[in-house]
Specification:
Length: 156
Protein backbone atom coordinates (compact mmCIF):
# COMPACT_ATOMS: atom_id res chain seq x y z
CA UNK A 1 0.00 0.00 0.00
CA UNK A 2 2.82 2.43 0.90
CA UNK A 3 4.76 1.54 -2.25
CA UNK A 4 1.88 2.73 -4.46
CA UNK A 5 1.79 6.22 -3.03
CA UNK A 6 4.95 7.84 -4.51
CA UNK A 7 4.48 6.66 -8.14
CA UNK A 8 0.89 7.86 -8.03
CA UNK A 9 1.90 11.36 -7.01
CA UNK A 10 4.91 11.57 -9.28
CA UNK A 11 3.13 10.27 -12.37
CA UNK A 12 -0.50 11.38 -12.23
CA UNK A 13 0.03 14.91 -10.91
CA UNK A 14 2.74 15.92 -13.43
CA UNK A 15 0.68 14.29 -16.19
CA UNK A 16 -2.36 16.39 -15.30
CA UNK A 17 -0.19 19.52 -15.03
CA UNK A 18 1.43 18.91 -18.44
CA UNK A 19 -1.97 18.22 -20.04
CA UNK A 20 -3.33 21.44 -18.57
CA UNK A 21 -0.36 23.46 -19.80
CA UNK A 22 -0.60 22.00 -23.33
CA UNK A 23 -4.37 22.58 -23.51
CA UNK A 24 -4.02 26.09 -22.15
CA UNK A 25 -1.19 27.29 -24.39
CA UNK A 26 -1.96 25.48 -27.63
CA UNK A 27 -4.99 27.55 -28.76
CA UNK A 28 -3.13 30.77 -27.93
CA UNK A 29 -0.83 30.13 -30.87
CA UNK A 30 -3.81 29.21 -33.06
CA UNK A 31 -5.28 32.65 -32.38
CA UNK A 32 -2.20 34.21 -33.93
CA UNK A 33 -3.60 33.22 -37.32
CA UNK A 34 -6.72 35.33 -37.76
CA UNK A 35 -8.92 34.87 -40.78
CA UNK A 36 -9.47 37.56 -43.42
CA UNK A 37 -13.09 37.87 -44.49
CA UNK A 38 -13.63 39.16 -48.02
CA UNK A 39 -17.18 40.54 -47.99
CA UNK A 40 -19.08 42.24 -50.79
CA UNK A 41 -21.84 44.57 -49.63
CA UNK A 42 -24.25 46.26 -51.95
CA UNK A 43 -26.16 49.33 -50.83
CA UNK A 44 -29.51 49.87 -52.50
CA UNK A 45 -33.08 50.75 -51.66
CA UNK A 46 -32.25 51.90 -48.10
CA UNK A 47 -30.63 48.58 -47.20
CA UNK A 48 -27.31 46.74 -47.21
CA UNK A 49 -26.98 43.31 -48.78
CA UNK A 50 -26.00 41.44 -46.70
CA UNK A 51 -27.26 43.42 -43.74
CA UNK A 52 -25.52 41.25 -41.19
CA UNK A 53 -21.85 40.25 -40.99
CA UNK A 54 -20.51 37.71 -38.52
CA UNK A 55 -16.81 37.36 -37.75
CA UNK A 56 -14.57 36.16 -34.95
CA UNK A 57 -12.72 38.50 -32.67
CA UNK A 58 -9.28 39.30 -34.08
CA UNK A 59 -10.27 38.59 -37.67
CA UNK A 60 -9.56 40.96 -40.53
CA UNK A 61 -12.58 42.29 -42.42
CA UNK A 62 -12.20 43.51 -45.99
CA UNK A 63 -15.41 44.95 -47.39
CA UNK A 64 -15.97 45.84 -51.02
CA UNK A 65 -18.86 48.29 -50.95
CA UNK A 66 -20.98 49.07 -53.97
CA UNK A 67 -24.19 51.00 -54.59
CA UNK A 68 -26.88 50.07 -57.06
CA UNK A 69 -29.02 53.20 -56.98
CA UNK A 70 -27.87 56.47 -55.45
CA UNK A 71 -24.90 57.73 -53.41
CA UNK A 72 -24.83 55.98 -50.02
CA UNK A 73 -22.54 55.98 -47.04
CA UNK A 74 -21.09 53.43 -44.65
CA UNK A 75 -20.16 54.30 -41.06
CA UNK A 76 -19.41 51.53 -38.59
CA UNK A 77 -19.90 52.19 -34.86
CA UNK A 78 -16.79 51.79 -32.75
CA UNK A 79 -14.53 51.67 -35.79
CA UNK A 80 -12.78 54.36 -37.77
CA UNK A 81 -14.67 53.69 -41.00
CA UNK A 82 -16.68 56.26 -42.87
CA UNK A 83 -16.96 56.10 -46.61
CA UNK A 84 -19.12 57.42 -49.43
CA UNK A 85 -20.03 55.11 -52.25
CA UNK A 86 -21.08 56.31 -55.70
CA UNK A 87 -22.95 53.95 -58.05
CA UNK A 88 -20.47 52.29 -60.39
CA UNK A 89 -17.45 52.93 -58.17
CA UNK A 90 -16.68 50.39 -55.46
CA UNK A 91 -15.10 51.35 -52.17
CA UNK A 92 -12.83 49.24 -50.00
CA UNK A 93 -13.06 49.16 -46.21
CA UNK A 94 -10.45 47.17 -44.29
CA UNK A 95 -10.32 46.83 -40.51
CA UNK A 96 -9.61 44.40 -37.71
CA UNK A 97 -12.50 43.19 -35.54
CA UNK A 98 -10.51 43.81 -32.36
CA UNK A 99 -13.40 43.94 -29.93
CA UNK A 100 -16.22 41.44 -29.44
CA UNK A 101 -19.79 42.68 -29.56
CA UNK A 102 -22.46 44.01 -31.87
CA UNK A 103 -21.70 47.06 -33.97
CA UNK A 104 -24.13 48.83 -36.23
CA UNK A 105 -23.18 50.27 -39.55
CA UNK A 106 -25.36 52.95 -41.03
CA UNK A 107 -25.67 55.14 -44.04
CA UNK A 108 -23.86 58.43 -43.55
CA UNK A 109 -25.15 60.13 -46.67
CA UNK A 110 -28.68 61.52 -46.78
CA UNK A 111 -30.08 59.34 -49.55
CA UNK A 112 -33.84 59.72 -49.24
CA UNK A 113 -36.94 59.33 -47.10
CA UNK A 114 -35.95 56.04 -45.45
CA UNK A 115 -32.28 57.01 -44.97
CA UNK A 116 -32.43 56.92 -41.12
CA UNK A 117 -33.47 53.25 -41.32
CA UNK A 118 -30.58 52.18 -43.49
CA UNK A 119 -28.78 50.15 -40.84
CA UNK A 120 -26.77 46.92 -40.83
CA UNK A 121 -25.04 44.91 -38.13
CA UNK A 122 -21.58 43.51 -37.54
CA UNK A 123 -21.43 40.70 -34.99
CA UNK A 124 -18.00 39.94 -33.53
CA UNK A 125 -18.05 36.71 -31.54
CA UNK A 126 -15.45 36.29 -28.80
CA UNK A 127 -12.62 33.88 -29.44
CA UNK A 128 -14.29 30.71 -28.20
CA UNK A 129 -11.23 28.40 -28.56
CA UNK A 130 -9.62 30.36 -25.73
CA UNK A 131 -12.64 29.98 -23.43
CA UNK A 132 -12.94 26.31 -24.32
CA UNK A 133 -9.31 25.82 -23.36
CA UNK A 134 -9.82 27.74 -20.12
CA UNK A 135 -12.79 25.49 -19.29
CA UNK A 136 -10.74 22.35 -20.03
CA UNK A 137 -7.90 23.70 -17.89
CA UNK A 138 -10.33 24.25 -15.01
CA UNK A 139 -11.61 20.67 -15.36
CA UNK A 140 -8.01 19.47 -15.35
CA UNK A 141 -7.33 21.47 -12.21
CA UNK A 142 -10.42 20.03 -10.50
CA UNK A 143 -9.31 16.53 -11.52
CA UNK A 144 -5.88 17.14 -10.05
CA UNK A 145 -7.38 18.24 -6.74
CA UNK A 146 -9.59 15.14 -6.68
CA UNK A 147 -6.50 12.99 -7.25
CA UNK A 148 -4.56 14.79 -4.51
CA UNK A 149 -7.48 14.49 -2.14
CA UNK A 150 -7.88 10.76 -2.88
CA UNK A 151 -4.17 10.00 -2.42
CA UNK A 152 -4.09 11.92 0.84
CA UNK A 153 -7.17 10.12 2.11
CA UNK A 154 -5.99 6.62 1.05
CA UNK A 155 -2.70 6.84 2.95
CA UNK A 156 -3.78 8.63 6.11
CU1 LIG B 1 -28.58 57.04 -46.75
Amino acid sequence: MRIRRPPYRFVVVPLVLVTMAVVFWWPASANANPVTHEISIDAADYAYMPGRIEVRQGDQVAITLTSSDVVHGFALDGHDTKVRVTPGISERIVFTAAEAGKFRFRCSVSCGALHPFMIGELVVTPNSPFWKAAAIALIGMALMFVHLWNTGKATS
